[in-house]
Amino acid sequence: MERSVAEFSLALAYRNLAVSSNPEHDFMKGDEYTNLALAMYPKDPDNLVFAAVFMSANGHGDEALKIAGGNVNPFHSSYTSVRQ
User: Fold this and answer.
1) Which of 7, 10, 37, 38 has its CA 20 to 30 A from that of 48?
2) For the chain, what percentages of helix, strand and coil (3-state, to nearest 5) are there?
């Protein structure tokens, strides 16, 4: 996947790389991939939700709250589907 993003970058691929770094406990690499995805599409709802959740899970609660607080509308549908 790393070779794929070197050839053709996609935010989804960066998010997948971030997720795949967690089982290896490589949180720095996960943070890097999360930030790359977010930098590509900083207003994309999928990126925003992913970044907030991933940052929160990796000990970056303040950054996660900053993203969540500034983007309430994209999160509403995610929270609604989780509560149902």
Assistant:
1) 7
2) 80, 0, 20
The tens digit of pLDDT for each residue in 8-40 reads 889 999 999 999 987 788 888 989 999 999 999
In angstroms, the CA 62 to CA 73 distance is 19
Give the count of domains, the chain: 1
Q: What global pTM score does this model have?
A: 0.74
Nearby residues of 75 by Cβ (< 8 Å), 6 or more positions away: 48, 49, 52, 68
Domain with 78 in it:
2-83
Give the separation between CA 75 and CA 84, rounded to whole angstroms: 15
Q: Collect all residues with Cβ–Cβ distance below 8 Å to 19 and sequence separation of at least 6.
A: 30, 54
